[in-house]
């Protein structure tokens, strides 16, 4: 079997990409923690058992406890490769708990890195404005917001945050971690009683997405102005005036990557920019 590095299948690791979905309700986030149920822990245990070798995953973005994903991406290396990756998808479907699924497994080049190759991450945050709250079938992934909402003001405030900024006011502090991010999309859509926020950036620091959404809730309810939101960009510490929105309304829906021939350059660029950011810093 050929390998991603062009060597012997029995000596050179082959890299595989996983496309993953999970309901984060009953997980304590992505990152493996001793004695605690996490997405990474469950997946690594299942893969290690099925493949009969120790598997360690590198992920595009470490989600917090209660946060969901339909478009999470991870990779792992396997010496000797894997026979029929899609067969492994079927085996994992029988082996994994129902709240996490590996949707696809594909062999990739050694330059592919789920974290450092990523161009941007896309999140969605979902609200219901229905007077009765949230439909029972969606209660684990939609947050109730049954109030009068000034959506035009929310859109105005969100647009003021687009671009490369220091988002320290919206991020929980981590020693040595940068809070400079390029927010590429932050807009809102309403269809009936469903409001969805679309948030995309090159990367996110800890609690950033939910803090952005929480700030917009204050604007939407008339408690704050769009100018207040923009002024927060001048703050270099976490702002106590920003409320973090509940975790269960948030989902990681996609991660973008460059073409294969651009992966190595992207890895180098990301590592240079993120050199001061610890691995555990990536979050939402």
UniProtKB/TrEMBL annotation:
Protein name from the UniProt record: tRNA pseudouridine synthase A
Query: Which parts of the sequence bind substrate?
Result: 123
E.C. designation(s): 5.4.99.12
Q: Does the keyword Isomerase apply?
A: yes
Molecular function (GO) terms for this protein are: tRNA pseudouridine(38-40) synthase activity
Which gene codes for it? truA
- Identify the keywords attached in UniProt to this record, alphabetized: Isomerase, tRNA processing
The cross-references to InterPro entries, in alphabetical order and at most eight, read:
PsdUridine_synth_cat_dom_sf (IPR020103), PsdUridine_synth_TruA (IPR001406), PsdUridine_synth_TruA_a/b_dom (IPR020097), PsdUridine_synth_TruA_C (IPR020095), TruA/RsuA/RluB/E/F_N (IPR020094)
What do we know about how this protein assembles, alone or with others? Homodimer.
In this chain the Pseudouridine synthase I TruA alpha/beta domain maps to 21-116, 157-258
Active site residues according to the UniProt entry: 64
Function of the protein: Formation of pseudouridine at positions 38, 39 and 40 in the anticodon stem and loop of transfer RNAs.
> Which reaction does this chain catalyze?
uridine(38/39/40) in tRNA = pseudouridine(38/39/40) in tRNA
Pfam families (UniProt xref): PseudoU_synth_1
Q: Does the keyword Calcium apply?
A: no
Q: Family membership, please give it.
A: Belongs to the tRNA pseudouridine synthase TruA family.
């Amino acid at each position: 079997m050929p390998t991603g590095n062009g060597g012997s299948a029995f000596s050179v690791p082959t890299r595989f990409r996983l496309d993953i979905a999970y309901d984060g309700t009953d997980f304590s986030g992505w990152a493996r923690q001793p004695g605690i149920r996490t997405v990474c822990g469950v997946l690594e245990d299942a893969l290690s058992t099925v493949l009969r070798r120790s598997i360690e995953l590198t992920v595009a973005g470490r989600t917090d406890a209660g946060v969901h994903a339909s478009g999470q991406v991870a990779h792992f290396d396997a010496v000797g490769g894997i026979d029929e990756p899609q067969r492994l998808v079927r085996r994992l479907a029988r082996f994994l708990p129902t709240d996490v699924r590996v949707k696809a497994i594909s062999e990739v080049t050694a330059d592919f890195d789920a974290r450092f190759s990523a161009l941007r991450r896309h999140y969605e945050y979902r609200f219901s404005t229905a007077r009765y709250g949230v439909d029972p079938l969606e209660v684990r992934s939609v947050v109730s917001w049954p109030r009068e909402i000034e959506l035009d003001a929310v859109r105005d405030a969100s647009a003021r945050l687009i671009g490369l900024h220091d988002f320290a006011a919206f991020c929980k502090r981590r020693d040595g971690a940068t809070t400079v991010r390029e927010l590429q999309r932050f807009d809102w859509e309403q269809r009936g009683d469903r409001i969805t926020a679309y948030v995309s950036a090159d990367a996110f620091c800890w609690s950033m997405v939910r803090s952005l959404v929480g700030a917009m809730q204050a604007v939407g309810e008339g408690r704050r102005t769009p100018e207040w939101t923009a002024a927060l960009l001048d703050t270099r510490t976490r702002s106590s005036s920003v409320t973090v929105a509940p975790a269960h309304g948030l989902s990681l829906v996609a991660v973008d990557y460059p073409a294969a021939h651009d992966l190595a350059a992207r890895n180098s660029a990301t590592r240079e920019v993120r050199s001061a950011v610890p691995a555990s810093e990536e979050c939402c």
